[in-house]
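Running low. Any example?
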Amino acid sequence: MGPAAVAKVFISYTSRDRQWACWIAEALETLGHEHFVHEWELPPGGDIARWMRERLDASDHMAAVVSAEYLTKVFSGWELDAGLWAAVGGRTNFVLPVFIEACAPPKLLAPHALAVAGRADEAGVAEPAARLFNQLGVLSDAKARWAEAEPLMRRALAIDEASLGPDHPYTATARANLAALAAARDRGGPDGGHKKGWFARLFGKAP
């Protein structure tokens, strides 16, 4: 890309999501960034492990095109693990997850997903903000971390109601997740005895 490039971005994806990866690469190029896409650089029979290592070392960020399948594949798993270790090692904001479908993020990816959701929300971008907030809330709920889950789920519901309306399936899902969270807290939360009326505060009526 030459000296005008703003950032070098490694694009991690699985073959099923190739179109998404190519679209992201083209968008980055339009903005003046340099991208690394293995299918555009590696010749047949090339050393993909060496290419991954060299390109990740040279990158400023890694855009992870996250889908349910991405989280199960070997090569994308190697790339994601390497990116997360780089972030833990001090490369701030190195991993930039791009969720292209609903799927629960791995625990180590959750803080990066939360950062992306926050930035999208600040910019007024309903998607992926609502989906990420909802997924992260569900993840915290599954670990009985209700104090963390509640504001995430409530923000997801607020975004969906404003952008999609009260009757959209995504809005209904966000509302159902909040109801399930309320029930879980009332049954077994550490402060469950003080949670009478919690459901009413969320929905304006008692269960």
Confidence is low (pLDDT under 50) at residues 190-207. The CA atoms of residues 130 and 159 lie 6 Å apart.
